[in-house]
């Protein structure tokens, strides 16, 4: 919005509408290019680190595909790019309460022709424990300067289980979601949604997001590459990436 | 069933029906007494180990109350007995896919007059991380001789999160669920339920239970007391308890 407004104001009153539209289209092109680049970075990372010579299983949460981001998406874009390289199957978690995994991600996986199964969110740790998952890959909504990651509620539990079983936990998003002005996850407000989404009759906790501390994140993938701890120095900002 | 059959056969053909009924009623009385005893053991344990001087919050999963067991139940029986001693609030997880937490446990908590809130299963780890939970207490369906615990799917994820945040994770059931003939959780078959419970259109993993290894279980509570690792020597069997 800031970019579009600045371009419009700089163009003056006569050319304002065209300039705003041109800037918006430039942002769209950049975002499509970013999705393609981060998918390549993530697929190369997974291909290099997952066991060779067999079908690998990637678990994902919520939706981070073409319905959520440009191109084939962020987390799901990485999975799709990996499937271009080698056989992959995906376990998609439902993502209660709004079931974006069950409603969106499995639909996208079907369109992509990637073998997949749906699981209730709370089955994920048991599936990890019994060796049915090779890596966890999700998108993210926002990352703080120190690498703490905010994403759909449930992401944190997957990160804890992944760590407990020494599985890689990768999060994927464009650098536009890196927020250098937010020092850590403690400063990220967590939206508390209407309790009516899960119950009309009873009190309910209904946080939309949770925060995964940086120390549980194996790597953060953006269009600028694969970033590892310490994230305060490795994470690019949009400004740095563009300059 | 074995006890009722043995009592009936021992009574002979004329008194068979009455003997079967008397044995069944004896089992019921024993189970009610077991529920009362395990609730007292668990409440004393929680009261002694949770922070004094403030309301404590216990998280539970699925239903382990009066609708699932005798008396006020097992896990929920402990919580009810704790609420008799001090102020308690409860976070009940939904327990997808059949939502026994959302449908049964919150109803029971309302009847018991215990303050409570419902949360989607995958919100639990984030609530634990942000300090909103003091202990996790659940029932269990079966425990192996080594202390590995099978319970409603999602229990394992709570155990992993509890360990990650150094919270106590207590499981509660009568000694009739201790299975000395099963060496470990690896020998407990996990029921895979109909995928139609979570999706009509897509492939799905739908395990009904998961197994929590004994090393994540802070204590197992039965009517015989509070049992701690190593469970292979501390767990009572029904036979030992009755003798």
Topology:
2 copies of one chain form a homodimer.
Chain A: H1 2-49, E1 56-60, H2 75-85, E2 88-93, H3 100-112, E3 115-119, H4 124-129, E4 135-139, E5 142-144, E6 149-152, H5 155-164, E7 169-172, E8 178-179, E9 204-205, E10 209-212, E11 219-222, E12 225-227, H6 231-234, H7 238-242
How would you sum up this structure, described in words?
Two copies of one chain form a homodimer. In chain A, 40% of the residues lie in helices and 19% in strands. With 243 residues, chain A is an alpha/beta fold. A seven-stranded mixed beta sheet of chain A has the order 3-2-1-4-7-11-12. In chain A, strands 8-5-6-10 form a four-stranded mixed beta sheet, with helices on one face. In chain A, β1, α2 and β2 form a beta-alpha-beta unit. In chain A, α1 crosses α2 (75-85). Chain A is globular.
Strand order of the largest sheet of chain A: 3-2-1-4-7-11-12
Rg measurement of chain A, Å: 19 Å
Q: What is the general shape of chain A?
A: globular
Show unreliable segments of chain A: 239-243
Instruction: Kindly state the number of beta strands of chain A.
Output: 12
What percentage of the residues of chain A does DSSP assign to strands (E)? 15-25%
- Main interface pair? A-B, 44 and 44 residues
Mean pLDDT of chain A: 95
Helix coverage percent of chain A: 25-40%
Number of helices in the DSSP assignment of chain A: 7
Sketch the major β-sheet of chain A. 7 strands, mixed
The structure class of chain A reads alpha/beta
């Amino acid at each position: 919005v800031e970019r579009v407004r600045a371009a419009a104001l700089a163009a003056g009153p006569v050319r304002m509408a065209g300039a705003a539209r041109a800037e918006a289209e430039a942002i769209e092109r950049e975002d499509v290019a970013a999705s393609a680049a981060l998918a390549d970075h993530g697929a190369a990372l997974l291909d290099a680190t997952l066991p060779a010579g067999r079908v690998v299983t990637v678990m994902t949460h919520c939706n981070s595909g073409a319905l959520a981001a440009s191109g084939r998406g962020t987390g799901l874009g990485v999975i799709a790019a990996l499937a271009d390289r080698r056989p992959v199957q995906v376990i998609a978690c439902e993502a209660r309460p709004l079931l974006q995994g069950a409603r969106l991600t499995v639909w996208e996986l079907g369109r992509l022709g990637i073998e997949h199964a749906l699981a209730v969110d709370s089955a994920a740790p048991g599936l990890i424990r019994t060796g049915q998952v090779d890596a966890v890959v999700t998108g993210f909504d926002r990352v703080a300067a120190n690498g703490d990651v905010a994403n759909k509620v449930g992401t944190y539990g997957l990160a804890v289980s992944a760590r407990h079983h020494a599985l890689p936990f990768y999060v994927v998003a464009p650098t536009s979601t890196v927020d250098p002005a937010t020092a850590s996850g403690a400063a990220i407000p967590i939206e508390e949604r209407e309790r009516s989404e899960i119950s009309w009759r009873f009190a309910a906790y209904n946080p939309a997001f949770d925060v995964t501390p940086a120390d549980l994140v194996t790597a953060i993938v953006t269009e600028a590459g694969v970033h590892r701890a310490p994230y305060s120095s490795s994470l690019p900002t949009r400004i740095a990436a563009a300059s």
